[in-house]
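Convert to structure. Protein one:
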Amino acid sequence: MHPGCSDSEDRSIPIATLSLFRFDGTLPRLWVLGQMGAARLRLRRERRAQFWKLCGSGTGQGFTPRPNWGVWAILATWPDEETARDAVATSPVFVRWRAKAAESWTLFLDPTSARGAWAGVNPFAGPGKSQTGGPIIALTRATIRPARALRFWNRVPDISATIGADPNVIFKIGIGEVPLLHQVTFSVWPDAASMASFARGNGPHGRAIAAVRDGNWFAEELYARFALLGTVGSWDGGDPLAGRSQQKDAA
């Protein structure tokens, strides 16, 4: 994973966005690497954002310690959907990144549940909601204890391959803050049953979760689910969620 996650911490967060950017060629990739410093300063001046992170991504199926220098992400939260859509369209950081990127794609997300902490806060906390339709989006974030990092990453290739082979997963990516020690997994599933079957089954992921619990591998964990409000842009030449029902959650 790439270094460079920045944040601001207003505590209320009704709407989240995940924006992915693909940079092709040496110069654009060097440019975005430099943005890990410059974009922090600009996002700190983006008053509409309540919480934000700048992250890199992993290679392969995404859940690996080897960085993908071409794919970067901005995760943010906003007071409401209208503000989120306007900020993604007009905020200088998003505008500049889209102009430099070969491709970009943003998901607008309504948190339905969240537990745990990210840098000491829960950026997705709020009233629980019951989702009425559309795909289930899952985000997990963990700070890996340095003494457990080698054992953790030894398990990741099996998990990554299993995610890629799962016929139910609609979209997945691994992003991160600090290489090897911070990990964020983001995946989209058609329903809660298929997601739960993967996460809690007897396969590599289920065994890895059991090992984590037994070995106290994580210093900090956060688990969140979202309903999909909509998307804008494209990824791999199209919208991976095109044609999917995108209903808001019911309170």
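Protein two, convert as well:
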Amino acid sequence: MKDLKDKIIAITGGATGIGFALAKAFGSEGAKIVIGETREEKLQEAIDILKNLNIDADKTHLDVTDLKSVEKFADFTCERYGRVDMLINNAGISGARGRIDKVDIEEAKKVFDVNFFGVWQGCSVFSKKMIEQGTKAAIYNLGSENSLFVAVPNSVAYVASKHAVLGLSESLRNDLPDFIHVGTIFPGYVDTPLTGQVEGGMNADKFAEIVKEQIKNEEHIIVSHAYNTVHIEKRINEITQAYKKYAPRYDGDDEYDVKTILSNL
């Protein structure tokens, strides 16, 4: 979306951190913002700030783990502004820290309920409305540098959930109508309430400005932290070397390629 003016943008978990920074960044370009999360006091604080910045914004309660709540969030957005042009699936939590044999699986499930199934439900509910609208729209899901490599040790649930978000986004890019753009945002370490116990991350407003320009350029891979390429290249090299050693290319090697096989059915 080259021009964000008057675009209707819904942001889950948009009252603090990256979501709130994105609300300010998009709103500064004239977008109309709807934010939702469970903490009413944080929602009100965020709305007060947005309105003081002359941003057209509204709020509603949202629990991304509750399908009915997500449906109400989408309905609220469309009733308030008549349509929805963009969804930012931003809500996320950490937790279930430790080595896997020490982690409570119920805590790990809570991480997945928010970070993955919360994103799933947002995509499911909002994509249906976008398809019914039939107009150009976009969905952006918050992944992480942990979608691409293990950045944070002893965080297996969080890392796995963010890998899953990338897979979900890429599948949607393949499956949804062409007029619905799908992208994944890959934050590195950003100073937010989620990561506030350790200082030294990128300022959230700076991060949001970097993200905003890529969204305006309709990119589907949204990046920020330059040094991440060091870790990504290491991972790609390990995969490439494994294939070279144990599954090297040969003439006609597409015989077992699933996309080739399916295209011939």
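The two ends are 36 Å apart (CA to CA). The mean pLDDT is 96.
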